[in-house]
Amino acid sequence: MGQLTEYIKDQIWVLEYPVRFAGMDLFGRTTILKLENGDLIVHDPCEIDDLVKEEIDAIGIVKYIVAPGSYHHLFVTDFQQKYLNAETFLCPGLEQKRQDIQFDWILGNKPDHRWEVAFFHKPSKTLILVDLLENIGDDYQHSANLLLRFWWKIVFRMWNNPKAAPEYQMGWGNKQIVKNGLEKTLNWNAERVILAHGEIIDNNVNKILSTAWRKVLNA
Ligand SMILES: [Fe+2]
Description:
This protein is of the alpha/beta class. The protein is 27% helix and 24% strand.
């Protein structure tokens, strides 16, 4: 179970959590955003124990649960059970994929099961993504994991080479729609990126993003 860490003072917290992927232990990252009125958004929820729940409750009231990507929905129901009054927002397509999840709202405009919804926290210029960018390499705190090195170096060629998740690279769906979305995201001129898999990025953001997404941006 991960530890809740304050990332932007009194505004953003992050929490790493274990996930199984291709037979190995990988990690994801939950982001908790505090709105001006003190309400909390839990972005990409993970499993939490009572201790972490107490820490979250000390920050504010969990009002919104967000499943932002088509692969980031595993712990939504756990979180809902802990926060019965919170509203749930799903990435378009998840309402089909996970018909067992009760939800209040669908994010975005038009459903496409491959979509991920990017969030931008204006006060801190923080972009919050899940699988649209992975940043795994020598600086990653879990980089000693040999299986992880094998997959990311040899198979995916994404070691020290941030890119979208392999499952996204295999098929972007409607490239024009994705391209428009990525361009809009670049126009936010974020100064940092919280992502699910890998180290948080806090410099050269647009350069890293446009390099990572170049195949779609140049399409
Ligand atoms: Fe992911």
